[in-house]
Amino acid sequence: MSNQIVRDHTRRLLVARYELEQMQCKAISRHQNLPNQIRYEYFLKSSKLPRNSSKTRIRNRCIFTGRPRSVYKLFRVSRIVFRELASKGSLIGINKSCW
């Protein structure tokens, strides 16, 4: 496995671990009816979470090649690997069209 795939996998694990805490801090810090001091405390708390625990740091990559572009979300493979797997018949319900 390439280094990028491993890095992306660790980021996905961190996002899953801190997702609830991140959502709580974000919701409380944006709540208008709470006092500013409490909102600011939760804003600081959210900024102290690991950077890689943010959803925006995740990059969709092909699980076979690590290619970052043109990845089908449903299958998590790139278009090149998708075409090879579809031609071999490895993907259930998908076949190459011919007319």
Description of the structure:
This is Small ribosomal subunit protein uS14m. InterPro entries: Ribosomal_uS14, Ribosomal_uS14_CS. Its main location: mitochondrion. It comes from Sphagnum troendelagicum. The chain has 99 residues and is mainly alpha-helical. It has three helices and two strands. The chain has helices at 3-30, 36-47, 79-88; strands spanning 71-72, 77-78. A hairpin with a 4-residue loop joins strand 1 and strand 2. The model has no long low-confidence stretch (mean pLDDT 88).
Query: Helical segment tally?
Result: 3
Largest sheet: 2 strands, antiparallel
Class by alpha and beta content: mainly alpha
Q: Please, what is the oligomeric state? A: single chain
Low-confidence stretches: none
Which geometry do the CA atoms define?
Answer: elongated
How much strand? Answer: under 5%
Strand order of the largest sheet: 1-2
**What value does the average pLDDT take?**
88
Give the beta-strand count.
2
Q: State the share of residues found in helices, binned by percent.
A: 40-55%
Give the topology string: H per helix, E per strand. Answer: HHEEH
Intertermini distance: 39 Å
Protein name: Small ribosomal subunit protein uS14m
Subcellular location: Mitochondrion
Organism: Sphagnum troendelagicum
Family: Belongs to the universal ribosomal protein uS14 family.
In short:
The protein has 99 residues and is mainly alpha-helical. 51% of the residues lie in helices and 4% in strands. Strand 1 (71-72) and strand 2 form a beta hairpin.
